[in-house]
Write a structure and sequence with these properties.
alpha+beta, two-stranded antiparallel ribbon
């Protein structure tokens, strides 16, 4: 039996490749946090003075953004700088995923609360100062566009933590657009009902994004198969390597954003060159960005091969 651990060298390469990205993510999150937090105070005051639920709902999203960006920044710092130890052998990489999960749930809660408040406003309309609402909403649009642009310099696709913060800001962006539209309708036509309707529309859009982030976070924490990988395809590619007779206990999961992992047992011919076989399998895994792999190699007569002796079937798990 031979076991190969490629995680040390690959993890080191992973850190080198993403050092610049981590720095860009931190700078983007810090700048976004300062801008969002500063304008949130202005928007709350504007919403209270104008009696606009659309502005207050947008300020609520900005509050969640401020919390989201702050936690995301802390998560990046902790996840990348606090070293692993004998207690937490992977370090605090999953802290980023926990933060993303919190952000997703926060988006859902705030959206549901705003929809509830909007329904109350539909039943009992409140007079809204359209001109003041328009000024604050337009300023909010400018700030949100600036923050969204800043965050786009980070890993908004690869890093779930940064993506969750970006989704929060997009929600605010939609909220500002909705508030501007409602303010124009109120100013030109006196349609007070436009304010709660805009809040509902924006909240429904944000619910969808919040659910996507929450679902992705839960899948990672449950060690589910990454959505972009086909386990059966990986199994078939590994089985194409000369000398491999079987594969079982195959597991593929995500440790944190952009850091995928695989473990498996391989049954091989007795006379196979196991070192060369490992190199070939590792090349297969590299094509799937599987940066952390643990491969156990067993001979065909290995007593604990985990096969179904009656049916001769090999087990594969993902």
């Amino acid at each position: 039996m031979k076991t190969a651990h490629t995680e040390d060298s690959v993890a080191h390469n992973h850190e080198i490749l993403h050092a610049h990205d981590h720095s860009a993510n931190k700078k983007a999150l810090l700048a976004g946090f300062l801008l969002i937090t500063g304008f949130m105070v202005i928007e709350i005051i504007g919403g209270l003075l104008s009696h606009s639920l659309a502005l207050l709902s947008d300020a609520g999203h900005m509050l969640s953004d401020s919390i989201s960006l702050g936690l995301s920044l802390i998560a990046l710092i902790v996840g990348s700088q606090v070293p692993a130890d004998n207690n937490k052998t992977f370090g605090y990489r999953r802290f980023e995923i926990l933060t993303a999960l919190f952000n997703g749930i926060l988006l859902l809660i705030i959206s549901v609360w705003i929809i509830y408040e909007a329904i109350l406003r539909l039943r009992h309309p409140v007079e809204v100062a359209g001109s003041g609402m328009l000024i604050v909403a337009f300023a909010g649009l400018v700030v949100n566009l600036a923050v969204a642009r800043i965050l786009m310099h980070g890993e908004t696709e690869e890093n779930l933590n940064v993506k969750s913060a970006f989704v929060h800001v997009l929600g605010d962006l939609f909220g500002s657009v909705g508030a501007i539209a409602a303010a124009l309708l109120i100013g030109f036509f006196g349609w007070e009902i436009a304010d709660p309707i805009a809040s509902v529309v924006v909240s429904l859009i944000i619910v969808r994004s919040g659910w996507q982030v929450t679902r992705a976070s839960i899948n990672i924490l449950m060690e589910s198969r990454p959505d972009n990988l086909n386990v059966e395809e990986i199994r078939s590619r590994i089985m194409e390597v000369d000398g491999i007779r079987g594969i079982h206990d195959l597991h593929v999961w995500t440790i944190t954003s952009g850091f995928l992992s695989l473990s498996c047992h391989l049954t091989v011919d007795k006379r196979a060159d196991r070192d060369e076989m490992l190199r070939k399998v590792e090349r297969v895994l590299e094509s799937y960005n599987l940066g952390h792999s643990t491969i156990q190699i067993e001979g065909t007569d290995f007593s604990d091969c985990h096969t179904d002796c009656a049916g001769g079937k090999q087990q594969t798990h993902a």
